[in-house]
Design brief:
The complex is a heterodimer. Chain A contains 11 helices and 8 strands. By secondary structure, chain A is an alpha+beta fold. The longest helix of chain A is centred in the first third of the chain and has 33 residues, at 64-96. Chain A is globular and about 80 Å long. Chain B has a 5-stranded mixed beta sheet, with helices on both faces. In chain B, strands 4-1-5 form a 3-stranded parallel beta sheet. Chain B is built from 14 helices and 14 strands. In chain B, 41% of the residues lie in helices and 16% in strands. Classes of the chains: A alpha+beta, B alpha/beta.
Amino acid sequence: MKIKKILPQVITLLFIVLIFSFFTMNAQENMETRGLDFGFGFLKESASFDIQFSLIDYDGSHSYARAYLVGLLNTLLVAVIGIILATLLGAVVGVARLSPNYLIRKTASFYIEFFRNIPLLLQIFFWYFAALRALPMPQDASLLLGSSFLTIKGLFTPAPIWTNFDVFFVTLIIAIILIFFFSRYAKKKQEQEGKRLPVLAISSAIFIGLPLLTFLIGGVDLSFSFPVIRQMSQSSYTFDGGMGIPPELIALTLALTLYTATFIAENVRAGIQGIGKGQKEAAASIGLTPSQVLKLVIMPQALRIIIPPTTNQYLNLTKNSSLAAAIAYPDLVLVFAGTAMMQTGRAIEIVGITMATYLTISLGISLLMNWYNKRIAIQEK
Amino acid sequence: MFKYVKQLTSLVAMFAVLIAFSTETMAAKKSKTLKNTQKKGFVRCGVSQGLPGFSNADAAGNWTGLDVDVCRAVAAAVLGDANKVKFTPLSAKERFTALTSGEIDILSRNTTWTLTRDADLGVTFVGVNFYDGQGFMVRKDSGITSTSQFKNGISACTNIGTTTELNMRDFFNSKGISYEPVAFEKADEVVAAYDSGRCDTYTTDKSGLAAQRTKMSSPNDHIVLPETISKEPLGPVVRQGDAVWEDIVRWSLNSMIEAEEYGITSANADMMKTSENPQIKRLVGSEGELGGKLGLDNDWSLRIIKQVGNYGESYKRNIADTGILPDRGPNQLWTKGGILYVAPAR
């Protein structure tokens, strides 16, 4: 009986090992006949190419490993911004899709059907090249919000200059932790004594007050450097000072957000519609306002339906960010699986590392979302 | 005594057989690529995704260009027909992997010969069919006429996966100028971005600049600056480890160049068979046994010259007459002030 259970598993395992060793040996043999060797030593060599946009200190004298890190951080940057924006937009559009207002409902449906059904790469090209042509040259750009310029060369905004940023940052973290414990305490108090504390007011007071205090007594200071236009030649201009956000990043984020938000919106709509009508009517009959019905009754239940498919969308967004290579945004694929692979010729090593990296990011997102999903699941009492 | 004679004769016979095998068929036997190509009936050639003058496909899918002609020459030599070539368009990033993985047998895609590539990628460069160098293109209305007028903060559009990225860094670093590299995967996007005003300059090999300029919305609004910031010897590449195939590709290219040197053209090649000059006779196959040494027949180079033409004809047809680079510059024969100089076919 036991053998019957174990035997198929052993055979499957053996089969997998055999396939893997076949491919490994095959690759090894082919590399040997072509005089290629396998190894990761190249990661320590200096990369000798520059990268347009980097979150950490980098230039061509740094190593390939550092270039990898630059690409990875750029990928994560797009993924994180994209996920946050797509979630917000998706939630709004999803609710709007069920609005009793005809115009709002139809606009939301139109947006979803339009952006969901055009290939993402095309949308990226559209936002990049169409928007690029529509944007003004630096010398023709008008001031935005009194301090920024949106031009063909990117968005130039004031750059913050901090003194004692670490003090400010640590205080901010402490404030967040305090708020977390305070809201738990408030919830407990409400459950036990029926008293409601003004959670929102006190939380915002902590969140704003504590970091603000560091400006007064912690020696923290913040000033801004503003972008200033400078002429480079008879017809070309650039900006000095301030912070430049490349148009590639803007176009990519925009395209990924607008595309993924449509799917999230549909998940939100499905989640809300998945809750029985009776729930809504019962909640209304005990005197809750429509926004209270949504917040206290519908959403907590709908989230259980929304989260799992939305996790898929987060994963898709992260993986789709690799289309960045088409419009010169230096993400992991462009920098590492592109330039670095080309300069070193280490195709197998670099593709291997890149694949492992995407796998790790995706599994990380999955784990996080599964943990969250478990937390909000109905707990049988 | 007789015993020894018998042994001796068998030894001699053995040697005779060995020698017979090793002369004519040796080359053909040793080259897997040559055998496969003859079996398939076409040469597998990797080219660019569209670079006018070097490798470019027309609306009907016919490939033309200086790089294309190298593959056609090999097809003429090996298979007897210059049209028996299967072209695979490749991005700069894919090209070496396509070659080492065996997807193509010749890479003729404006590829720069460097030590790292030659030694570390499992490929071998067989020669140079175009001497190039990296340059810069700017808009005319910028008033810039020399790279010395470049200022800090200049943004430069280019391709990834090329030596261009490395040269660009060396150049701007040595001048102490800060710059913004904007690197795309495909050349068409580089041109589109530069053309829209995203970048102040577009940098790549000068031949590439001249060719891509023809694709822009108004070519006359742009100029290529006179400075050349690097050496870019472009040439065909083969997989490492097949010395015979390497020789075939190398000498197919060399014979085109040497044919120009001796005035042999596609029009007069047949008449040249009866020339007084022994070197000309060797090139058109009426003297010597050069083909056999490569595992080919003796008319191999005659077919190249007749079907593809000599180097000068190929240059004129693809690059000069199309208005890309009418002046041959360094790509003129060494006898006429250029640096085109190949080993003699003898």
